User: Fold Ribosomal-protein-alanine N-acetyltransferase from Conexibacter arvalis.
Amino acid sequence: MTAFPERIETERLVATRCDAEGELDAFAPLFADEAIARTMWPAHLGGPRTREQTYAWLARYDAHWEAHGFGPWTVRERDGEQIVGHVGLSYTVVAGRAEVEAGFILAPDRWGRGYAAEVTTSALAHAHAIRGLESVVAFAMPDLNPRAVATIERCGFAYEGETTVVELPHRLYRIAVS
Assistant:
């Protein structure tokens, strides 16, 4: 079995293991963005993230990598150093069951370029490195984030049903790991 890579490169993007300390300044305004908050942290979940909340979120990514040997990557365009978001795999719980989730958050000015699908597809190509993993899930709120639904479907996930995540209805998708 091969190790899950800490760095991947796609045609247009470079994705590296997250670094909470070194990347906080770049992620703080991204996580405070109203457009992202509408799809990730609606008002009942506190809305846009503060700098401290962003650090805690990123620190969880670091801890996930340390504990499991995989996790979300920080995404940059190949032709620059500016962070444009994160994409990757991480453990989550869906309907009381431990799952590996494919998730992504990108800067709103990068939406519609296919970046999330590009890196998610690459992440799925490495998912076989996660011992015992048979499938990966993804979920999104179709009313609040139809672009995420389209991205998930573009990556080959199959619709599995409806579920509740953070007290909100989501569509649940699954893809087998080969």
User: Anything to note?
Assistant: The chain is about 35% helix and 35% strand. The chain has one domain: 7-176. The radius of gyration is 15 Å.
